[in-house]
Specification:
By secondary structure, the chain is of the alpha+beta class. The chain has three domains: 7-103, GIY-YIG endonuclease, CATH 3.40.1440; 109-209, no CATH class; 260-370, no CATH class. Helix content is 40%, strand content 19%. Strands 9, 10, 11, 12 and 13 form a five-stranded antiparallel sheet that branches. The protein has a four-stranded antiparallel sheet with strand order 1-4-2-3. A four-stranded antiparallel sheet has the order 6-5-7-8, sandwiched between helices. β9 and β10 (273-280) form a beta hairpin. α8 packs antiparallel against α9. The longest helix is centred in the C-terminal third of the chain and has 21 residues, at 350-370.
Length: 371
């Protein structure tokens, strides 16, 4: 994640320089000699700097950096969302040992299909690892991920136990096997290949957001109805309703993270412009400024912009943090800007994106007129 060059406030004439700053969203870094001393984001830059850099008039209990500050670097931002990403990037650069604590980065929960196991299973996790697996999320809370995992497994017959299986005819099994909710590979009731076939159905369900299972079940219902087997059609219709109930438990961002594409539309500091922050396979890309004053249609310029993208995949640890930042912003009560999700750069919903840009622009204009 790249960071533009900062504006700088020198200690010479510090009070006058701070007084001339805008009272707007920003990220700033206070330097003490060659050492970065204090990094923060704020919605009121001038007021915040006046408070921490004011000349001391006696003992104070609040933070005051006037005596140690040698310069201040700052970056104006167009939104709290942009401030969050800028703050994260600067924290990684200047405080590599401590940035997670500074940013207060909380990893979201995922439903993980552990494909590296001989008999794959699911689990809820907050960490991405390099082993072969499918991660479905991010969810708003761990409880939401656990609920989706439990309810979706009711649609299939893969195991719910967490142990590494050593199949044996003498294995005691579990309640799910007795209820015919598991194929019981532990007791050699099915072969490993038969079990993996059911795992593939789960993988397909998660990768496609349930679309294939919905289509197959709806087709079976319609076929049975055409054959006058109304009892069978009713069973399939009930199963279809159950599948749709499970899919309704997904949070807004929950997908196979390898198919997590989208764009955050945010206000820009430049007049009559917005910033587009694309996410490709769960990784934030460099922001793209989009001026809104042009004789070329917005739809055409968006298509040209998307065609010019060269997505960069972040390392796994950094990708995990990118997804945490996306979940924090999107699921927050203070979320500014708009998120448009899609499954790939060849499936961008341009009409929806144009409308989102228009709304963000109008909201920014309304905010400027109020302030």
């Amino acid at each position: 994640m790249t960071v533009p060059d900062p504006a700088i406030v020198e200690v010479t004439g510090l009070d006058d320089s701070i007084a001339a700053l805008p009272n707007s969203d920003a990220v700033f870094l206070v330097w003490a000699g060659d050492r970065s001393a204090y990094l923060a984001k704020t919605s009121m830059l001038r007021r915040r700097l006046l408070r921490i850099l004011k000349a001391a008039e006696g003992p104070r209990r609040s933070l005051n950096l006037r005596e140690v500050a040698t310069r201040v670097e700052y970056w104006l931002t167009g939104s709290r969302f942009e401030s969050t990403l800028m703050h994260y990037a600067l924290a990684r650069r200047h405080f590599p040992e401590d940035y997670e604590r500074l940013v207060k980065l909380r990893m979201p929960a995922y439903v993980k299909l552990v494909l590296a196991n001989e008999f794959p299973r699911t689990q809820v996790t907050t960490r991405l690892t390099a082993g072969r697996a499918l991660y479905y999320g991010p969810f708003r809370t761990r409880a939401a991920a656990e609920l989706f995992e439990n309810q979706s497994l009711d649609l299939f017959q893969i195991r719910r136990c967490q142990e590494n299986l050593e199949p044996s005819a003498q294995h005691p099994g579990c309640i799910y096997g007795e209820m015919n909710m598991c194929l019981r590979p532990c007791q050699l009731v099915v072969s490993r290949d038969e079990y993996l076939s059911e795992v593939h159905r789960v993988e397909e369900f998660l990768e496609g957001n349930g679309a294939a299972l919905v289509n197959v079940t709806a087709a079976a219902r319609d076929r049975l109805s055409d054959e006058m087997d109304f009892e069978g059609a009713a069973r399939q219709h009930k199963r279809l309703e159950r599948i749709q109930e499970v899919l309704a438990l997904r949070d807004d961002l929950a997908v196979d993270i390898e198919h997590l594409y989208g764009v955050a539309v945010a206000p820009s500091t430049a007049p009559d412009s917005v910033l587009l922050w694309f996410v490709c396979q769960g990784s934030w890309q460099a922001p793209r400024a989009l001026p809104l004053t042009s004789h070329v249609s917005l739809d055409a310029r968006l298509r040209e912009l998307v065609a010019s993208l060269e997505p960069m995949a972040a390392p796994l640890a950094e990708k995990q943090e990118h997804l945490a930042l996306l979940a924090r912003w999107h699921y927050s009560t203070w979320s500014d800007g708009e998120w448009i999700g899609f499954r790939g750069l060849d499936e961008v919903p341009y009409r929806k994106l144009v409308r989102a840009i228009s709304r963000v622009r109008n909201d920014a204009i309304s905010g400027d007129s109020v302030s």
